Amino acid sequence: MHTSISKWLGITEQQLEIIKAVQKLQLNNEKTTPKRIEEQYKKTTGKHIQKPNLFNQLRTLVEKGILSRTDSAEYIISYNNIKYEILKTKQILSDEIKEIEKANLDIESFMRKISSTPLRPILRYYNESEFYDELAKLIQSADAFYCTTKFPAVTFASIINEGGWDYYKVLYKRAIIDKDLEVFYLTDFTVKNLLHFVKMLRKKDAARPIVTRLSNVLKECPNIHINYVPNMYGMDIAMPEQGFPKTFFVMIRDSDMYTTGGLYIDSPEIATDVKGLFLRNFEKGKPVTSRVLSSVMGLIG
Prior knowledge:
Elements: H1 5-9, H2 13-27, H3 34-45, H4 51-63, E1 67-69, E2 75-77, H5 79-116, E3 122-127, H6 128-140, E4 144-149, H7 166-177, E5 182-187, H8 191-200, H9 207-220, E6 224-228, E7 237-241, E8 247-253, E9 259-266, H10 268-284, E10 286-287, H11 290-300
Parallel strand pairs: 4-5, 5-6
Antiparallel strand pairs: 1-2, 3-9, 4-7, 6-10, 7-8, 8-9
Helix pairs in contact: 2-3, 5-10, 6-7, 9-11
């Protein structure tokens, strides 16, 4: 069984090894009871699996339709369901490739615009601290804020007691306390980035309160709009807008997808195009619901 099948079926490596154990037993015309699966699993992986864990994994695989349980308490592989899930994943991947290609064309168009615009845009590079400081200043007087983000930061300030962190505090005050800043977030809810933030604050138990606060804010603040997409492609941007599109940042991230700085661009023409691109992508997302946030809470652990 192909090793990539775990990714295609949305299962863990351990669950894949259990399926392989069942497959081996079926090929040898042997019984596929939990006891025999446990023995075959140890034989093929060299590892022991605890019985409660094995039963939990078998139950999960049955719920997913990958295995089925017979009246004699044996487990067999549901090959038709696996084929269906793989074909469904194939279609999703095909759609994602189209989105990636479109995002690439958008970026190429954006770069051509920078080089050909009659009024040369003002470009500046900011390191991480400079980026957040400048963003805080611009948000202070903005009417709206458009941002692609790995995790919405609008409630991060709710756990900050110490000095500094002006970007989060200004954003929190303008959007949540004063409610006079219209905020548009497009996010894929990468929990790792939330955990990285609370780790920097040395408040490891603060992740859940941030998500709880976010859930409440979405009910209390009609000026905050968050749309979710499972995968984000294209440009990472932060655009505080006062009156009309003029300036924005293209965010720079490291290999862990943490923000390390930003490229500041001052050009009404390009900013207008980039805002249009953001809004088109925003419309493709789904408004965040309590169900999405419950899933996020489950990933925190």
